[in-house]
Write a structure and sequence with these properties.
Number of strands of chain B: 8
Largest sheet of chain A: none
Shape of chain B: globular
Low-confidence stretches of chain B: 218-226
Number of domains of chain B: 1
Number of helices of chain B: 9
Radius of gyration of chain B: 17 Å
Oligomer: heterodimer
Largest sheet of chain B: 7 strands, mixed
Helix content of chain B: 25-40%
Structural class of chain A: mainly alpha
Radius of gyration of chain A: 20 Å
CATH class of chain B: Alpha Beta
Mean pLDDT of chain B: 87
Number of helices of chain A: 12
Distance between the termini of chain B: 41 Å
CATH topology of chain B: Glycerol-3-phosphate (1)-acyltransferase
Mean pLDDT of chain A: 92
Order of helices and strands of chain B: HEEHEHHEHEHEHEHEH
Low-confidence stretches of chain A: none
Largest interface: A-B, 31 and 22 residues
Strand content of chain A: under 5%
Strand content of chain B: 15-25%
CATH architecture of chain B: 3-Layer(aba) Sandwich
CATH superfamily of chain B: Glycerol-3-phosphate (1)-acyltransferase
């Protein structure tokens, strides 16, 4: 079971993030003051949204473990809803989508019960095999493969992959990792989000060569390498405090999170480009939709979970 | 509408259940909320594909306005049994009208009275729920209302996605994001011969201002298009 009281390291990290955000807000205010002729509205909206997201995330992490699980289940549900609202679906499949939504509470129930075996096969095996059966019962074969494929892809990313954050939360505290699951969640979530910001900042500072010009023209080698290097360094520093990893393996985890975050980002970019849209929605002012914010976590959370699970649990 | 218990139930239903549902299950996003009327009298005119439409439109207005918001609905459908009639009249607060000219006199007289009381009236000029994201021919009633009340703003709205979340003839709700686009007010003073055309044009322009919903074709689709 998870501890009812948050470990001091968790509280300190969250407080540090509020301080960092306050500094960032001051920097944005200073920029506005120095160059009032430029349009800072998007950057301001983005910073304001960070305040809201950090406040909600902190409340979910600090108040109670069951609240944290419910919070991550809600994120999965909202992400899946955003995805299913964006992609083309078949009118015939409304009832299939209803069952697809039902996988969210079940997946998080397995996690709450600490039932690792079910958590790891529920979507890849049972969901994968049974949802097409429900589609066959409806009897419409046109676009069957496309509909089944896109639905499963969404379930894998936004239910299965994202639920690894909640699975990290359930990992027990050990002498090597007294901050427990909450420390691991904080490690991967904060580093992934910082990695996004760092890649953006490094890209602005020295970005020239584009990494994937046809998928995400904004991503440059300067941003990618600078961001990943900084994330790796931060991970090496924070790992002994929040995780069972030492400085060395912490750096490896940071490299993994930085690269995985980048891949998640560009994969969702490719989806949006395929659908011909810029943002996945307008849930988060200045950022776009929820998928625009959690895209990198869909890759970094499961990869970090299995890295740490293999090494220590 | 009367009775403090019904009033309290109506308040709870809209401000707790409906608002929570619209926020979480629909994730409603509203374009040009500032074009909504601050107070009555006003007529909100929207496309109609789902029972959710009324709830969505009522959730757009501030809680303080709730007591003055009245959706116009078909009496023959919503008053067909005692419990539905109680829910429709007391909780939703509908103004029942008779469709198809079955009654005597002006079927829209109760709507006239509501506007004279300064209420915000929700009106679906297609007359019934149609196919998602398609506009059926508009009935003339809305033009009569606008002519009788030339000072009352008629605000066109387009609701997208509700016909996918809960279409006509389906009892199973499936969560989908919904969008609402609010248009500029039209007034009865401008009601020339082409007023209905303008309203229709405005509604379709609002529809086109939203990102298109994408569907795979599928066979059921063709059946629906017959």
């Amino acid at each position: 079971m998870i501890h009812a009281m948050p470990h001091p390291a968790v509280t300190v990290i969250l407080a540090g993030l509020f301080l960092l955000l306050a500094l960032a807000s001051l920097a944005v205010a200073a920029l506005r003051h120095a160059r009032p002729q430029r349009d800072w509205s998007e950057l301001s909206a983005r910073t304001r949204s960070w305040w809201v997201m950090l406040a909600v995330f902190s409340a979910a992490m600090l108040l109670s473990p069951s609240l944290s699980l419910a919070f991550f289940a809600l994120i999965s549900f909202l992400a899946l809803k955003e995805y299913l609202s964006l992609i083309p679906t078949r009118r015939a499949d409304r009832r299939v989508l209803f069952w697809a939504y039902l996988t969210v509470p079940l997946q998080y129930l397995w996690i709450a019960q600490d039932w690792y075996g079910m958590f790891i096969v529920f979507i890849p095996v049972y969901g994968f095999l049974m949802l097409p059966l429900r589609m066959v019962l409806i009897g419409d074969t046109r676009d069957f493969l496309r509909a089944a494929g896109t639905l499963h892809w969404g379930l894998m990313l936004f239910v299965f992959a994202l639920s690894h954050i909640a699975a990290l939360l359930m990992l027990p505290a050990t002498p090597l990792a007294p901050a427990g699951g909450a420390g691991l969640v904080l490690f991967v979530v904060v580093l992934t989000q910082l990695n996004d910001v760092l890649q953006y900042l490094w890209g602005h500072a020295l970005g020239r060569q584009r990494v994937l010009p046809t998928v995400s023209p904004g991503k440059t080698w300067g941003g990618l390498l600078g961001g990943v290097a900084t994330t790796t360094a931060l991970a090496a520093l924070a790992a002994p405090w929040l995780t069972p990893l030492g400085h060395g393996m912490g750096a490896v985890a940071g490299l993994l999170i930085g690269l995985a975050g980048f891949i998640g980002d560009v994969v969702i970019s490719a989806v949006k480009r395929d659908l011909g849209i810029k943002d996945s929605g307008n849930l988060i002012p200045g950022h776009g939709g929820l998928l625009d914010r959690i895209d990198s976590l869909t890759y970094s959370a499961p990869l970090f979970f299995h890295f740490i699970h293999y090494l220590h649990y | 509408m009367n009775g403090p218990i019904n009033r309290a139930l109506r308040w709870l239903f809209f401000n707790v259940l409906v608002r929570g549902f619209v926020l979480l299950a629909l994730g409603l996003s509203v374009r040009h909320r500032e074009r909504l009327p601050g107070q009555g009298p006003a007529i909100l005119v929207a496309n109609h594909n789902s029972h959710l439409d009324t709830l969505i439109l009522m959730s757009l207005l501030p809680p303080a306005q709730l007591a003055r918001v009245r959706p116009v609905a078909a009496g023959d459908y919503f008053l067909r049994n005692r419990w539905l009639a109680w829910f429709a009249r007391e909780i939703i607060g509908i103004i029942p009208i008779q469709r198809g000219g079955a009654g005597h006199g002006n079927p829209l007289a109760p709507v006239d009275q509501a506007l004279e009381r300064g209420e915000i009236v929700i009106f679906f000029p297609e007359g019934t729920r149609g196919e998602p994201e398609q506009l059926a021919p508009l009935k003339k009633g809305i033009r009569h209302l606008a002519l009788h009340h030339p000072e009352v703003p008629v605000i066109p709205l387009w609701i997208q996605g509700a016909g996918r979340a809960l279409p006509r003839g389906e009892a199973l709700f499936v969560p989908f994001f919904c969008d609402v686009a609010v248009g500029h007010a039209l007034y009865g003073q401008q009601a020339g011969a082409d007023w209905m055309e303008r309203l229709k044009r405005d509604l379709l322009a609002l529809r086109d201002s939203l990102p298109p919903l994408q569907w795979y074709q599928g066979r059921v689709d063709e059946d629906a298009d017959r």
